[in-house]
Amino acid sequence: MSDQSSSRPLHGRWLVPVSLVAACLLGAVILTLFLFWFTNWSPAEQVAIDQLTSEGRGGGYVDYDWELAQWSDQEGPPGNFVMKALLGEDYASHAVTVDTYGRSAEMLATTLIHLRKLQTIDLQDCEFNEDVARILADLPELQTIRFARMSPSAECLAILAQATRVRELGLLDTQVTDAQLAAIGEFSSLKEIFIVESTGTDEGLSKLGQLRSLEYLTIHKMPQITDEGVAHLKNLTKLKTMLLPMSQVTGRSLEIVTQMPDLESLEMTCLPSEQDATLATSEIWPQVPTLSSIYLDAPCINDEDLATMAKMPNLSDLYLANPSITDRGVAKLAHAPELFSLTLLGTHISDKGIRPLAQAPELFFIEVSSDRKIRLKTVGQAEVEYERFFPKGPQPHLHSPYEDW
């Protein structure tokens, strides 16, 4: 009888050993402390990222490699807390892209040194010195460096040139000098250059002609360069894109593209010249069958050019401003097999030249400005839009330097 009563709860409750209660309380305390530490402790990489993205005196953002990966569930990566649990101390070290602005050189130096997996950095309106340049040059995976509203010195660029992994360099909203161009010419593996404006001369452009691995060259405004400067680019045989829309070159410079067998996109402004009548520019286009996009402000372009352009197998986008063309030449483009978009500004063409374009198999868009009345609204499947005609030439319509930034 006494044995049975001893197993019953006292006063309706079960007895719990004190040691078990103590163990549970201790476990709860330890778990709470761990969770507090886990969610609040930050490695040096995370501290660096917090500083680079904070909004005080600037701002920015960071991309991690696991954010940019392809996710099979199509729902994107898990949240930061989950990735922190999975990656532990390596959570923040997976930053591959940093875009920051308004930072001091001291902050850049003390933060970027921790981001060893960084691949792309965009610096806007930041202080930049040789110490920061050395840190960037030492990052083992850095491939893309872009500056906006700041001007890295030639000395800083020379330090960055020692980083053999850098493939892309951009300078936006800053005047790039000959000295800076000379330093850029020392990058051994550079594939892409994007410069909005340069005060450089033919001598500076000649330094870029040393970059034999270059594939994409954009200098939106370089008003001092001439045909002699462009001639220095003849060794850039791997170029796929060459954009030099605002300069002092003439139609003579178009001949350079025959040295670029892989060229896909060309944009140039060619000033009128006494030699235009003698230039055989129509012989250029058959030698560059890879071209898919041609943007030219060039009076030297004539009906013979249109006839050879119509035979280009990959030409899909043709923009011509101030060309010396007639209705007869425009009609030749009806045979262009891949032409999708056609813009002809500052012309003297009429409906007679545009109407045959209804036979162009892929043409979808036509834009025209002419001093003659054009009444057509559609041509085949293509819509026809009209620009105002300017007797002194059309307003600039070439690509904005900010489109790809």
TrEMBL record:
It comes from the Bacteria. The keyword Membrane applies. One of its GO terms (biological process) is SCF-dependent proteasomal ubiquitin-dependent protein catabolic process. The chain crosses the membrane at residues 12-38. Gene3D superfamilies: Ribonuclease Inhibitor. Keywords: Membrane, Transmembrane, Transmembrane helix. GO terms for cellular component: SCF ubiquitin ligase complex. PANTHER family: PARTNER OF PAIRED, ISOFORM B-RELATED. This is Leucine-rich repeat domain-containing protein. It comes from Blastopirellula marina. The lineage of its organism: Bacteria, Pseudomonadati, Planctomycetota, Planctomycetia, Pirellulales.
